[in-house]
């Protein structure tokens, strides 16, 4: 550690134009790698990461190498440095291992870092993981974490370790990172007497009633009306015995077994307590963007679930409505500090609602349609197949699944897909009137038994037809079969050994194998929308673009948000907020218009119908078109425009969903008897 201190001192003396200098202790690196299950860095060495603009590389790199060698260090591979920088703003990855943390943050002079870190490691035996960032030329901010569990009795006492670490820093000439509400007794040392008086004078002048942030920064010795006098006294008392109190808390948390009652599943329970409350999810959440209310964000949902698990609130319709909104877009998964499977959790909650006698009134209507007619819309099976005009098989290795939406509201998608397969002389099975819904809406509604029955029925039908691979136009069906069917089949003890593949992925494979080639140029400009269940759920970002690039004459103009960062169409919000659907649709169309493209290309009947109707409503210059329609046109296969029927079906959907809400299940008195 002394070498690290000397290295940092030498580095700052050189006054190199470096953007950022970060430090990680061995215990910090070990915990981070354990949480991510990605082991690339040594766990017995102190690591320093330096970041600077590439044009400065020649000026800086040789000096860094020289200083590193002088202080017994070595330069790691650049790839590892890039990985570290990419993770810079995710310092709490390992909170999941806790699932709680005791945190402490201090600022120290560089020449005292070694003494501080050595004392913390001597006292806590590596339990306190520390990472730091240089602040200025002679100081470093150090953030320390210790794993704990807020569900254990010793957790409140263990938090005194945070105060103990601050005390160690203060003995080395350091100070708390900030004052806030808990450390107002340190405000004088933090700001200096004159600066503190200046702050207090200014606050009194603009806030004479003490309405804004009462109890923060200003100590009770100055602010006689401070509401935190008792808190300050308690903190002083805790400070006097922080070492012993913290030790008692650590011992209690280690001795107490980690078995706790929870009404929720183990993984959801663990992730609820692991949530870092960082708020990264808020800025990208589809429903929060439309209605910025805290419970609409994943962070807000986890806070509510925390209180539910602790028995502080019931799972009633009010709580359920707060937890319900989610489009399953999975955007929150991409930025989650602790890498929780959030979208899956919100899906699992639907079964929890059902167990607590709650149901979504809109999905109850859809459930009746699915059980009685086999599809979302309640369209009779024969009427739903009017688009099918090519020969199909009853047995074979490949099957095509048209789905509820791609065979009704946007039946041009199913027609395009089957005509393309027929054009390429690829025989395929279609189940015609036997094809039911995939069951997505039963899962969304929490109707587990109904869903299990459908899973069993469909898997038996697949087995009888000898199918090995099933192709889908609908990403929702594709995701349901790929994930929910596998899970339910395992739970029910039945086989599910079929490969499920989206039609766009299949077309990309045919192009790569030279089995699908185009000669007719389309000569138009397009932009492409990554549907959530094809993109973020399964990572198929390149395949649709491969198909687009293979078609001559197409010019792809990408939108601002694409691939992992692509916006959600918002259609699933229809079950609880039609205004959110409109918000998401308009926002995406505006992005598409900005590219100047003639067409917005989709690969999903839900996204397609949402954007098709929104384009018509807005009178937009950009028009929606499905990717299979471009393929069909490039193969000179006739296509049809679904726009007219899209409006009819979407109006029907609005009528169905206008009063949709999560509500208690009411059992008629006669049924009870």
Automatic annotation (TrEMBL):
Keywords: 4Fe-4S, FAD, Flavoprotein, Iron, Iron-sulfur, Metal-binding, Oxidoreductase. It comes from the Bacteria. Signal peptide: none annotated. SUPFAM superfamilies: alpha-helical ferredoxin (SSF46548), FAD-linked oxidases, C-terminal domain (SSF55103). The keyword Iron applies. One of its GO terms (molecular function) is 4 iron, 4 sulfur cluster binding. Gene3D superfamilies: Alpha-helical ferredoxin (1.10.1060.10). Pfam families: CCG (PF02754), FAD-oxidase_C (PF02913), Fer4_8 (PF13183). One of its GO terms (cellular component) is plasma membrane. InterPro entries: 4Fe4S_Fe-S-bd, Cys_rich_dom, FAD-bd_oxidored_4_C, FAD-linked_Oxase-like_C, HdrC_iron-sulfur_subunit, Helical_ferredxn. Residues 265-296 form the 4Fe-4S ferredoxin-type domain. This is Alpha-helical ferredoxin.
């Amino acid at each position: 550690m002394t070498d690290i201190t000397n290295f940092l001192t030498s580095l700052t003396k050189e006054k190199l134009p470096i953007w950022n200098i970060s430090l990680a202790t061995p215990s910090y690196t070990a915990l981070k790698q354990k949480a991510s299950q990605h082991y690339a860095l040594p766990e017995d060495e102190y690591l320093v990461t330096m970041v600077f603009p590439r044009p400065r590389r020649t000026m800086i790199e040789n000096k860094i190498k020289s200083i590193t060698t002088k202080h017994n260090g070595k330069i790691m591979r650049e790839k590892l440095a890039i990985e570290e920088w990419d993770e810079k703003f995710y310092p709490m990855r390992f909170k999941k291992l806790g699932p709680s943390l005791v945190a402490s943050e201090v600022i120290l002079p560089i020449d005292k870092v070694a003494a501080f870190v050595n004392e913390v490691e001597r006292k806590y035996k590596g339990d306190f993981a520390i990472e730091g960032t240089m602040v200025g030329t002679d100081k470093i901010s150090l953030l320390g974490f210790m794993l704990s569990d807020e569900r254990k009795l010793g957790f409140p006492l263990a938090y005194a370790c945070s105060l103990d670490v601050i005390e160690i820093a203060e003995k080395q000439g350091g100070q708390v990172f900030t004052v806030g509400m808990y450390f107002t007794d340190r405000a004088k040392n933090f700001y200096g007497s004159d600066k503190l008086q200046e702050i207090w004078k200014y606050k009194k002048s603009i806030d004479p009633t003490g309405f804004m942030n009462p109890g923060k920064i200003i100590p009770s010795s100055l602010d006689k009306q401070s509401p935190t006098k008792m808190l300050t006294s308690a903190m002083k008392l805790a400070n006097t015995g922080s070492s012993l109190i913290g030790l008692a808390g650590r011992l209690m948390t280690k001795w107490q077994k980690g078995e706790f009652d929870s009404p929720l599943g183990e993984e959801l329970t663990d992730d609820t307590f692991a949530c870092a409350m960082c708020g990264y999810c808020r800025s990208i959440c589809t429903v929060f963007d439309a209605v910025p209310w805290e419970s609409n964000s994943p962070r807000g949902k986890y806070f509510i679930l925390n209180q539910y698990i602790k028995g502080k609130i019931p799972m009633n319709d009010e709580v359920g409505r707060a937890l319900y909104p989610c489009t399953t877009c999975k955007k929150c998964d991409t930025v989650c500090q602790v890498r929780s499977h959030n979208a899956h959790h919100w899906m699992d909650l639907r079964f929890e609602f059902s167990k607590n006698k709650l149901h979504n009134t809109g999905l109850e209507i859809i459930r009746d349609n699915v059980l009685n007619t086999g599809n979302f819309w309640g369209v009779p099976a024969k009427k739903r197949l009017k688009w099918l005009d090519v020969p199909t098989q009853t047995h074979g290795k490949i099957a095509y699944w048209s789905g509820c939406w791609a065979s009704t509201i946007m039946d041009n998608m199913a027609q395009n897909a089957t005509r393309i397969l027929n054009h390429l002389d690829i025989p395929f099975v279609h189940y015609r009137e036997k094809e039911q819904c995939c069951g997505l809406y039963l899962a969304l509604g929490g109707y587990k038994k109904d869903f299990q029955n459908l899973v069993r029925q469909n898997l038996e039908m697949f087995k009888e037809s000898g199918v090995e691979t099933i192709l889908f136009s609908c990403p929702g069906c594709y995701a349901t079969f790929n994930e929910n069917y596998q899970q339910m089949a395992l739970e029910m003890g039945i086989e599910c050994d079929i490969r499920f593949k989206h039609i766009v992925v299949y077309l990309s494979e045919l192009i790569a194998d030279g089995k699908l080639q185009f000669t007719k140029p389309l000569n138009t400009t397009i932009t492409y929308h990554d549907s959530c269940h094809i993109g973020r759920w399964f990572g198929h970002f390149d395949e649709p673009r491969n198909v687009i690039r293979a078609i001559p004459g197409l010019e792809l103009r990408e939108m601002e948000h694409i691939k992992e960062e692509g916006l959600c169409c918002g259609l699933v919000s229809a079950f609880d907020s039609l205004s959110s659907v409109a918000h998401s649709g308009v926002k995406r169309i505006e992005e598409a218009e900005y590219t100047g493209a003639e067409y917005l290309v989709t690969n999903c009947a839900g996204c397609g119908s949402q954007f098709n109707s929104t384009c018509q409503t807005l009178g937009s210059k950009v028009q929606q078109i499905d990717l299979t329609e471009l393929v069909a046109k490039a193969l000179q296969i006739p296509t049809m425009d679904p726009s007219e029927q899209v409006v009819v079906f979407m109006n029907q959907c609005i009528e169905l969903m206008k009063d949709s809400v999560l509500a208690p299940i009411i059992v008629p008195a006669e049924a009870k008897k």
